[in-house]
Amino acid sequence: MVRKVIVTCAVTGAIHTPSMSPYLPITEKEIADAAVEAAQAGASIIHLHARDPKTGRPDQSPERFAPILSSISERSDAVLNITTGGSPSMTLDERLQPALIYAPEVASLNMGSMNFGAFQGVERIQNYKHDWERAHLEGTRSGVFRNTFSDIEGILRRCGDQGTRFEYECYDVGHLYTLAHFLDRQLAKPPLFIQTIFGVLGGIGNHPEDVINMRRTADRLFGNDYVWSVLGVGRAQLPIASMAIAAGGNLRVGLEDSLWLRPGQMAKSSAEQVIAACTVIGALGLEVASPTQAREMLGLNSQNRITPSRVAQALS
Ligand code: KMH
Ligand code: ZN
């Protein structure tokens, strides 16, 4: 049987700002259209953040997510994955609102507190479109992206009790051990969908040995109880994804994680990155997993599937 590779696409995120790329989707329509385009290109999971349409600032209000969720689920059968990371400067309660209200099939779950450095490009931007952008990036010099043991336990219980399963975001080896702790306590339930993240300043780097180290550690801790996916930040996106595809893994792309298609060429859409990843998958003789296959591989709960009527009900 040919192995199926799950492609997740994260179309906007909360770290990149509007001045960094004219292609970053900002409005609800732009985010939904980018997601549908990515799904048509082969992504079976769409990882979602929302933004204020006027300023482009990250916005976790459930009202902001509603039109995005409705519009995507009307036009595509992709698995919708709502962030609980939000933006590093938000409170946990703020971050959790959309995942709690919409109880999606998948929500992200960040497996440790960390310095999440996004300040390195600050001087590279000549003209900021909005006042908040510079402070947002500079704020990551002194801010802590908080994900304590009790925060993680709270998310596992509150979202997990509603049937939501998780994309476990692991930025370093220690985060895998934290996940093993919650697996031992049966709060995290297999199959674990582990997103190993390479190249965030404050987390593990993006050297091939870092990828192998995370893979080996995850194998030792979780054996057959996990589905491995990788996310390479910035220019490392496609090289890291290609390594993982060849080594039995799955991958995540999208403008949340990288604004680039290849060195020196900005991606005009997340779909372009999905197409590049799917080309590698095909070239290796593997197949891209459909949403139905991804749902099966990850043991997702069908009652959590987002539909326009569930979205309307949740807000009423
Ligand atoms: N921006 C990614 C590196 C989340 O939304 O929970 C991690 C992320 C976090 O997607
Ligand atoms: Zn995210």
How would you describe what is shown here?
The protein is α/β, with parallel strands linked by helices. It has a single domain, classed as TIM Barrel (Alpha-Beta Barrel). The protein is built from 11 helices and 12 strands. It has helices at 28-41, 62-75, 92-102, 131-138, 149-160, 173-184, 208-222, 237-246, 270-283, 291-298, 308-315; strands at residues 4-5, 7-10, 45-48, 79-82, 106-110, 165-170, 192-198, 226-232, 250-253, 260-262, 265-266, 287-288. The strands form 3 sheets. Strands 2-3-4-5-6-7-8-9 form an 8-stranded parallel beta barrel, surrounded by 7 helices. Strands 1-12 form a two-stranded parallel ribbon. The protein has a two-stranded antiparallel ribbon with strand order 10-11. Helix 8 links the parallel strand 8 (226-232) and strand 9. It is globular and about 50 Å long. 50% of the residues are buried. The mean pLDDT is 97. Zinc ion is lined by residues 10, 13, 47, 49, 83, 85, 108, 256. The site of (5S)-5-amino-3-OXO-hexanoic acid (KMH) has 14 residues, from strand 5.
